[in-house]
Write a structure and sequence with these properties.
This is PEP-CTERM protein-sorting domain-containing protein. Helix content is about 25%, strand content about 20%. The strands form three sheets. Strands 5-6-9-8-7 form a five-stranded mixed beta sheet, with helices on one face. It is α+β, with helices and mostly antiparallel strands and about 210 residues long. The protein is globular. It is built from four helices and eleven strands.
């Protein structure tokens, strides 16, 4: 086996052993406790069940007060109007309004994660990527996650992740709280990467001494 083939095989094996997500958009951070989405520039906590069941107001307060991984700027995922003006709360199945399925644009942080970064379809959750807590064996359309976006009076927007649907939910309903923050976090090098770096630096030092 040539050196090039050996290197390719080693890289492939390292990827398998490290548990890195298959989709390049999602990158593990902080020993797998957080996931950075390079497409949306958001960092998600890897455990989607971390916040438990809460009303929307309680969920927002929990996220705002959360300190995790050395960061305290967490919040609930948000929804911006798909038309850029005001929320459209009529149902659509093509993502043209803010209620329904196929809300895959960057305006819906949950929708973008579900459809674009994880690669799911409206047929149902098939890809969970590096996240845990996204499957409810007792509820095919759940878990249901709160966003931090209000809907009509007394209602808030929520994401039914088992089917990729965004809809209104009475704000005093108990649904899951999951936290996200804007930006990347510092990636801690794996021990193997540190070792390779040291070997490279040593080789450079030896070469310089030889000249």
């Amino acid at each position: 086996m040539t050196l090039q083939k050996t290197l390719f095989a080693a890289i492939a094996l390292t990827g398998l052993l490290s548990g890195m997500p298959a989709r390049a958009e999602l990158q593990l951070r902080a020993n797998g406790s957080m996931v950075y989405d390079t497409a949306s520039h958001l960092t998600w906590i890897a455990d989607a069940s971390i916040g438990g069941l809460r009303t929307q107001a309680d969920a927002m307060q929990w996220a705002a007060g959360l300190s995790f991984g050395g960061f305290d700027d967490w919040r609930l995922p948000s929804v911006a109007p798909v038309n850029g003006i005001a929320l459209q709360l009529d149902y659509s199945d093509d993502g043209s309004t803010d209620i329904g399925i196929n809300n895959a644009g960057s305006n819906s942080e949950f929708g973008h994660l579900y459809y674009t970064s994880l690669g799911n379809t409206a047929a149902g959750l098939a890809q969970t990527g590096p996240f845990s807590g996204l499957v409810d064996p007792n509820n095919a359309v759940g878990p249901v996650f709160w966003t931090g976006t209000a809907g009509e009076p007394g209602w808030g927007l929520a994401f039914f992740i088992g089917m990729g649907a965004q809809d209104q939910l009475a704000s005093d309903t108990l649904a899951r709280a999951w936290a996200v923050r804007v930006g990347d976090v510092v990636a801690v090098p794996e021990p193997g990467s540190v070792a390779l770096t040291l070997v490279g630096l040593l080789a450079i030092a030896v070469r310089r001494r030889a000249h």
